[in-house]
Design a protein that fits this description.
- The strands form four sheets. This protein has a five-stranded mixed β-sheet, sandwiched between helices. Strands 9-10-13-19-18 form a five-stranded mixed barrel.
- Helix content is 25%, strand content 28%.
- It is an alpha+beta fold.
- This is Protein NEN1-like.
Length: 472
């Protein structure tokens, strides 16, 4: 594997793909674009872009064309991925990869494409996911942190959703954000006194202030959710501008206060509201247990936290039509007496198999790392009801001043329409009347860990819920 200084260029890349229209269909690459960037001058040195012909042109649906404008006719005479694989491998292998939301999407598509032609995928020296990085460092000044929003914020024009245009825009956005942050940190009295800085950015700046100057660089090989930097590599002795020695001190903190505190997962970055989480969440039959790994990552106040990975990404799961066994409970409280909401659903055998495997790996790492806390299995199996296992879905809350609110995106599905619900206040009775025993929900959740008050385990954090009105 080539990992020397001769491949120090940063490879900003982007793929445009088909948009699956049914469960289990998968993605097909329609375009690949990349630029090689000097890490010291941040200037483009080389570029490559090509359309890609999928094995089945019928995969290019109307929804797919609406997303990126690439039609079946446009790729009819384009090379297949197998024909460009050597070039893609040369651009990516052994280099630092960079892009917007690449850990959750583009990295997976590259691995899938190489697996589809029975070839080993390229491996990165490190990964810079600018969605995670800018959300942590720049805050939400531009709005939802999508590339189009950031480009509009800085007056860089419209995003075209074409690979080469997008990576060049990505580099420019990164430069602009870096300039603003540099000026604010260098001249805080001038640049921040009358400017609006997102509360998220302020909170994380305080946390990051505890890290030493040599420990606030970029990171590698660990993906991000919408508001987290979740990439890191092993520490190396020599520090250089793109040594991926360390992610921020608060890598997984994200405003969490131990297992019992409040948690803010932020918003997702899905392409269309009607296709919620297709690129971020895996259904149980799409998860390969051998691809699941467990490791320790820096947490708040110098501690470490167990993280659950699937390939390059954080393990996030989508389970459809989960039946609610027990409705919303608010009997649990955190250390400050704030209510923590959760409810219990039946778990399929496929989901149980995955969670049992995660549980075993995480428990072993917990013991090996010196924890003496009692481990609590994530899947509950009651005597006499072994064929009816359940799991608890936690609803994360956030504190705004003196008020609490839940962060889970909640939708209600009636017949063929799905509508997002907006709650005016933190009223548990509203949820209790919505999520009742016997109701079916489509649940999009992450797999988190905790170790608090001599109890440890993993828990499922519901980021999105679609509640079916007709549960028959």
């Amino acid at each position: 594997m080539i990992m020397g200084d001769e491949r120090m260029e940063v490879s900003f890349f982007d793929v445009e793909t088909t948009v699956p229209t049914r469960s289990g269909q998968g993605f097909a690459i329609l375009e690949f674009g990349a630029i090689l960037v000097c890490p010291r001058k941040l200037v483009e040195q080389e570029s490559y872009s090509t359309l890609v012909r999928p094995t089945d042109l019928a995969l290019i649906s109307t929804l797919s064309v609406r997303c990126n404008g690439i039609t079946p006719e446009a790729v009819t005479n384009a090379p297949t991925f197998g024909e460009i694989a050597d070039k893609v491998y040369d651009i990516l292998h052994g280099r630092i990869w960079a892009g917007h939301n690449i850990v959750k999407f583009d990295c997976h598509r590259i691995r899938e494409a190489f697996a589809g032609i029975n070839r080993p995928a390229p491996e990165p020296k490190g990964i810079i996911d600018t969605l995670s990085l800018l959300t942590q460092r720049f805050g939400r000044r531009a709005g939802d942190m999508k590339m189009a929003s950031l480009a509009t914020y800085f007056g860089l024009g419209q995003q075209t959703h074409r690979s080469l245009d997008d990576v060049r825009m990505n580099l420019e956005v990164l430069k602009y954000c870096a300039t603003v942050l540099f000026l604010e940190s260098s001249l805080p009295d001038i640049f921040t006194e009358n400017s609006w800085v997102s509360p998220n950015a302020t909170t994380r700046s305080r946390a990051n202030g505890r890290a030493s100057p040599g420990e606030t660089g970029f990171s590698a090989d660990r993906p991000s959710s919408s508001v987290k930097i979740e990439t890191y590599v092993e520490r190396t002795a020599e520090i250089n501008p793109f040594n991926m020695a360390r992610v921020e001190e608060s890598l997984r903190s994200d405003d969490m206060e131990d297992e019992s505190g409040s948690y803010s997962p932020g918003s997702s970055t899905t392409a269309t509201e009607s296709f919620i989480g297709c690129s971020d969440f895996l259904e149980p039959n799409e998860i390969s247990i051998p691809s699941v790994s467990i490791s320790l990552a820096p947490f708040c106040r110098g501690s470490q936290k167990i993280q659950v990975l699937h390939d390059y990404g954080e393990l996030q799961i989508c389970c459809r039509r989960m039946k609610v066994r027990f409705g919303v409970s608010s009997k649990y409280a955190d250390y400050a007496g704030r209510r923590r909401l959760s409810f219990v659903v039946d778990a399929s055998s496929d989901l149980c198999q995955i969670l049992d495997a995660v549980d075993n790996l995480a428990q072993k790492l917990s013991v090996d790392s010196g924890s003496s806390s009692e481990w609590r299995p994530v899947v509950t199996r009651k005597p006499g009801f072994m064929n009816y296992p359940t799991v608890r879905l936690n609803l994360p809350t956030v504190i705004d001043g003196n008020n609490s609110r839940w962060m889970t995106e909640i939708y209600q599905k009636e017949s063929s329409t799905t509508q997002k619900l907006v709650f005016s206040r933190f009223d548990v009775t509203e949820l209790e009347s919505l999520i009742t025993p016997g109701t079916f929900v489509d649940a999009y959740f992450s797999v988190d860990s905790y170790d608090i008050q001599q109890n440890a385990g993993i828990r499922l954090v519901a980021l999105k819920l679609i509640v079916h009105s007709n549960s028959t």
